[in-house]
Each structure stands twice: as structure tokens, then as C-alpha cells.
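Follow-up to my post from last week.
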Amino acid sequence: MPSMTMIQALNSALDTMMGRDPNVLTFGEDVGYFGGVFKVTEHLQQKYGAKRCFDAPISENGITATAIGMAVYGLRPVVEIQFADYMYPGYDQLVNEASRIRYRSAGDFTVPLTVRMPYGGGIRGGQTHSQSPETLFTHVAGLKTVIPSTPYDAKGLLISAIEDDDPVIFMEPKRIYNGPFDGFHDRQVSPWSKHAASEVPEGYYKIPLGKANVVKEGEALTVLAYGTMVHVALAAAAEAGIDAEVIDLRTLVPIDIETIVASVEKTGRCVIVHEATRTSGFGGELSALVQEHCFYKLEAPIERVTGYDTPYPHSQEWEYFPTPPRIIKAMRRVLES
Amino acid sequence: MDDMSRKPNALDLHIPKPRARPGDKPDFSGWSFPEPGSTPKPDIEESAVEMRDFAYGLIRVLDMEGNALGPWTPSISPEELRRGLKYMLLTRAFDERMHRAQRQGKTSFYMQCLGEEAIAVAQTIALNGDDMCFPSYRQQGILIAREYPLVDMMHQIYSNAQDPLKGRQLPIMYSSKKEGFFTISGNLATQVPQAVGWAMASAYSNDGRIAATWLGDGSTAEGDFHAAMTFAAVYKAPVIINVVNNQWAISSFQGIAGGENTTFAARGVGYGMPPLRVDGNDFLAVYAVTKWAAERARANLGPTLIEHFTYRGGPHSTSDDPSRYRPADEGRCWPLGDPIERLRDHLVSLGEWSEEQHRQAQEEAVELVRATGREAEKVGVLSTEAPQRRAEMFEDVYKDVPWHLAQQRDEGA
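User reply:
Got it. Predicted complex:
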């Protein structure tokens, strides 16, 4: 089985689906000839022709809206928003349109649309290339939100998203496009090729939406994380020698409540980690779900380790980013109380 | 900055104002329109650059005596014209009754298209039956001209047990895939770039169908309109983008949307899109420009922008009183007349219609609406006592009901 980076795995997912289904096409800013600024759509235009992989005007509003129209027609468009931070001009089309067309037409019209967007920090991208706006999508009834953390999951989840009959927001943790990042920015970065989940089948396979993955079993506490933070949380647990159970949520909506509840009921302790700002962040939802379902099994207050409620800063990036030392502190508080 | 330190200058913020507000006489003085029949008709292959003057003129076929004049006179049979006239009469009768039904408390909301009937009806007849329409909320004439059951429109307006949209949508926000009528949003202009995307998909799949979409003069200010224009022009999408300039966006006159210094059709010039400006109350002219744009789109020559110059005869919706923001008699003074009367006069002048037939057709329309109304009201009107089945509220959010929605459904049951 070939070893792939997350970028190669995403490219392979698009390639697989475009090969299988003539209704799948992809477009976005710099997506066609150039293959995307992160190269996720590389070679697809050469292989499938410009009509199936093309450049779009710099209008996220137009990209999102025309893709909705295509999906309503019956195609399965996959659009790339160059950075999640650029989504907002198209946000109205997601919130008021894509998410509600099935509902308001009583199932007469549907929107099988996938919106891909690199998100997250740790790349020295500053305020407009580092945001983690997942909660702006999870709050919207009618959208599904998916975030992979490995090349293997990225391909299987993207194929599921493309085949899904509802609009899916597919957020790609760009810090780990080329290698799993453990949160220690001053240490050597290891490539995906050294990670087991970089073994990616060349052909078609799916990872179902709505299913979390227990990436490390443990007894002391449960960590709920997704995207880049899965790797950071694993590194934190290893660094501190804490027997944490680390759950990669993979899909935020619909959330895999069973996996979360089974773990927290076992450990009685829970730490939630995400890059996004804390207030009204997805951690708030997770915390509420855990206390609603596991209150009598909880041995300690739930902890959140998140980005701060500031815009994403540039030079202070490693103060802002939820690094292993911050996660370790939270784990210790949870264990000691 | 204090006044003493300010240098003399010419700056003064300009806020556009309409010519007449309540208490004023309607003022259309100084408006000049090209004579009916005076605008040339270009070949569908004409380049957008050569067509720039069309943005500033007005295509007219019917004169005010009902004669059809000039090169835009379409070849359309009297039979088709009578069909169009009857759909317009039915649309007006339907509007009249449903507006009243809202006043009687039978529903929460209604929107008429009084005075704009020719646009949706003539365009629907000019399009193929399977072309896809992305309307705003004032093109009920499309459904009527495609003979969608009137009673289903009423069920939707009453959110009753037979509402095809299961009581979820505001009245008049119809949806019918079968009739090629896209679910009306209620947000403004969002449908325009969606129509462009649909048209791109149709070209991609080369299935021969085209898209048409409508928005008001006011909502051309939305970013969606400009994104739609860009994408339609860039990809030569087979789409007709219709700006219905009915002069008023609720209480804001069209100058607030940018109509003071240029026309809405002129928006097409900057995008390299043929701009046609047409008398929206002239059934024949609307039909002719739509045929032209549809042929052009079907020949893969790309999109057309059409500005329909008309007047919103009624309120924006049942939620506003136009006499509070414009002269009450402004609509009656509209220099381009009433679209129904003008088509009637044309058919009469052809010897294909009579006053008597017209009165009879009018009565038939009113009676059909009345009978259909009774049928719909028997099923139910909007009521808090008889809400839709509660569980249906949780369906169609997604294809399948996820666990969290099932839980919310069950916990309140």
C-alpha cells in the first residue's frame, strides 16, 4: 500500500471519485491548471479535462452559490475554499441556502455538495490564514461538518462526503497536510511516511460520517479532539506519561455520542482540546453533551484547552496555540481533582 | 474637527430622493421612451460590446392603442396570446383573493404581483416547459402558466394538511421540481448565482435546457447578483438573468439601489453581457426579448441580462402600506399602462378578442379562484389550533434523521 501525505490522500480521493462518477467535478481559486495553492487538486485538470477541474473567480460567494446550483441540478460538486478564513463571503449561501433547500422544499430539491477548506493554525499564517471556524458550521441545522486527522481518514471521509446527499463542510487541518504535528514547534517534524495512517489504499473505500475513532485507549481520562489537535493531545499524554484515552471525533455533526459516552463513563474524566476560540466553541457543545450523558460518572470538572478569545495572532502564535504543556496542565488538574 | 479649521470645500453627502412621496403628485415628467417598434433587433450572435446601446433604450412592441410594431414583433399565434392573457387574468384574480384571505386572518403573509403579470407569464410561454426557473417571490405567474395546481398554491399559503411543503415555509415561497420552479428562498438574490450554477451544470451535461432567474431592482445591490454576473459571463452560462425594475424595494425607490445614474440593464455592459431593457408591461416585447435570450443561450452563446421596466402596483407584501411612502395614485399614472389591458387591446385590434370575451374570461378566472379557494379552505387555513404533524418538523433537515434530531423529536412528544 502506498504511503501518502494528507494532500496526496485528498488528491487520491478526488481522483477516485472523478474516475467513478462523471457527475463529480471540482473548482475553486487556483484549483485548475495550478492544482490548488496546497496542491490538493494537482494533475486532476490534466487527467479529467478543464470542464471537471477548473479555476474560479475570487468570489467565495459565487463559488458556493454556483456549486449549490450544480448540486440542485444533480451533479456532485466539490469546491475548494482556499482558506477557511475566506469562507465568510459565501457563508450566507451555506446558512440560508445549502443547509435548508431540502427542508424548505420538503425534499423536492437536495444539495449533494462538498465544501473543502484548509483550516487551523501553526503555519505562521496570521489572522486571515489560521482560523478554525468549525463552530460556525456545526451551529447550522442541515450542514454536516467533517475534520480528518490522518491521510487514511482524509481519503475515506472525503469519499463519504462526496457521496453524501447533503451538504458537507470538509475542513482540512493544513498544519498536518505534510506530516503529523505534535505541537512542539521547536522539535523536528516527522513526515507522514513514518505514521501508520499514511498507508492509503489507491482505490475506493469509505470511512462513515458520524463515527469517531479511539486512536489510543487509556484508563485515566478521556481526551476529545479533532484535526491537528489529535496529534498534539497524543504527544501531550506521551510526554506526561498519562494513560489518556484519545478520541478523534472525525465528524462533528452528526457527532458520535456513543463512543464519547462509552469512554467518559469508563474514565470519569474529560479534557476537550481544540484550536478555535473558546467562547461558543465546539468544546462548549462537547462539554454540555458529556455532562448531560455522563454526569453521574464524572469524577472531575470537564476541562477545555482551546485557542484564546482573541483574533489569531501572528508573532504570538505559540502562546496562542494549545500546545502540549497547556494540555498536560489541564490533564493534571482533571486527574488531581 | 472644529468648524474654524475646516477649509472651504464642495463635499456634501448625496442621499437619493424619489420625485414624489405621499401628498405629492406622481411625477413622470421628463421621462422619454423610444417609440414602439423603433428599436432594432440584433442577431442572436451579436457581440455584447455592439449591444451596449440596448442598455439605455427600451424595447417596445405594443403602442398604447394595442398595435404591434417593429422588428421585435414576435411570431406568436393569437391562441398563445389568449392563453397568456388568461394566465394573467388568473394570476390577478388569485392575488386579489389571497391578499384578501390574509386580511381575513386565514394566513400570515401574502405578496401580489399586481402590474407585473406580463413578465412571468410571457417569459414562461417563451421558455421551454422544461427550462429551469429560479424566481424571486413575485413570479407566481410562472406556476400559473405552467399549470401547477392552483389548489396546491393555496394549500401552501394556508400551511394546511395538504401543503406540499409541510407547513415549513412562509406563504408563497413555493417549490416544484416537476414544474421547474426552484424553491423560493425569501432571502434576496441568492437564487441568481444558483441559477448560474444550474445553467453551468446543464452546459456541463449538455442536456439542452437553460435556466432563467429573476430578482428585483433593489436586490441588484446584493453581492450575489454581482457574483452571478461574473460567473455567468466567465463561463458563458446558458442563463437569462431578469431584473424586474418595479421602481420600489418596499419603501426605497430604485435610486437607492443605484438606478439614479444609470439603468439596471447597464450592469450587463461592465460584465460583457448583452443588456436588453424592455417595457415590462408589454407582453409582446417581454416575450420577444425572452425568445431572443433563450435562443442565444441555447446556441451556447451565453447569458443575457434583461431589465424589465415596470411598476409594482400593490404593496411589497401584506406587511406594508404603500400610501405611507409613495403617492397613492402613482401606479394608476404609470405611463406604460396595465399589461393585461394592453394585451387585451392588442387582441381586440387583431379581431381575435372582444370586450365581451374579456369580461367573461375575467369572471371565469374569479370563479375558478373562488371555487379553488373553497376547496383549499375545506382542508384548512393557517391556525395555531391545527398545526402540522409535529414529527414532520424534524424531517428533511438531512436525508436521514440523525440521533440528535430524533432525540429532540422524541423528548417533546
